[in-house]
């Protein structure tokens, strides 16, 4: 598995025929998903200090101390990626269920939640033409799958101002790579190698939030996590003339992936009755990522900076739906956690707009976020990606469990 991940990461800097998906997802654990919900994505991921009673937090579990009703959230994401490598370009859509969460308030100052969210994804397909002696061949490499996280979280408020939260996570998933070599002009057999890696393990996330009169502070910390892996390798050859497939070898390897520690700090400011702003800085120590106890090639530490704003005209339940809606915008910057083949930094940034529409007597919200991002640069990295993302969520509140004033 270590060899496979290293080879794929090296290929991300030399492939010249781009077909689909993001070739940057071929290395490491794929593309980190960022864990943002639709509300925070509308503010470019700003969330560490900004608790909200309508919002089940994904990034900082301390926010559970402020939910006032039982809540259920389901989310969907659509993304379009236009990739260019200087010779070719491709536009690839991606859409998927993006997790769910269920939360209930407990007693007067606590909250608990259960949720399933994506942690990373791998999604690419690329081709490399070549020649062995005088025989031309076409090599197609695909990658798919990812890692998910099942979260069980709890939080407790101390005297209304301080909230402490913790999340236990069970990570699981499957990442699959297929390498196919076809000889279209000869009688040589087509070969296909498949590496299917199952991933599983547990981890923790801790968070804290503190509220002053108009200022909110927050912090999160995730320790280093070791996940177990089991990789099944299949080596096959296929006779295109007879459609027969011959399995030459199948074996299984045990291994591990070490996910690095991360920490972040956030601040929020209630600028007026209607306006709230936030700023986050979150660092992940990707240099400590390991595959089978070996450092992952070309990984680098990253810090994500994000700033966001939320505006709500009024909370009057008799006002128009547009006056009661939340309007959001934000900007974020973070270098990609892998460098290119020449060890150059791959920069990425996002700008976003969002909206939260009140539904069901102001107890729930339908959230939507639009984001445009750019990753990589043709001149510096030999690859650029223009990303268009839409995130939709329904955050429903019910009075099954209702927090009592205390």
Topology at a glance:
Layout lengths: L1 H10 L5 E5 L9 E2 L5 H5 L26 E16 L4 E18 L3 E23 L2 E24 L3 E21 L7 E22 L3 E8 L2 E15 L4 E16 L2 E9 L4 E10 L5 E2 L2 E2 L6 E11 L8 H4 L1 E8 L14 E12 L4 E12 L2 H4 L2 E19 L4
Antiparallel strand pairs: 1-5, 2-5, 3-4, 3-20, 4-5, 5-6, 6-7, 7-8, 8-9, 8-10, 9-12, 10-11, 11-14, 12-13, 13-16, 14-15, 16-17, 17-18, 18-19, 19-20
Structure explained in plain terms:
It is elongated, with a radius of gyration of 23 Å. It has a 14-stranded antiparallel barrel. The protein has helices at residues 2-11, 38-42, 321-324, 378-381, and strands at residues 17-21, 31-32, 69-84, 89-106, 110-132, 135-158, 162-182, 190-211, 215-222, 225-239, 244-259, 262-270, 275-284, 290-291, 294-295, 302-312, 326-333, 348-359, 364-375, 384-402. It has a single domain (2-402), classed as Beta Barrel (Porin), CATH 2.40.160.60. It has 406 residues and is mainly beta. The longest helix has 10 residues, at 2-11. The model is unreliable at 1-19 (pLDDT under 50). It is built from four helices and 20 strands.
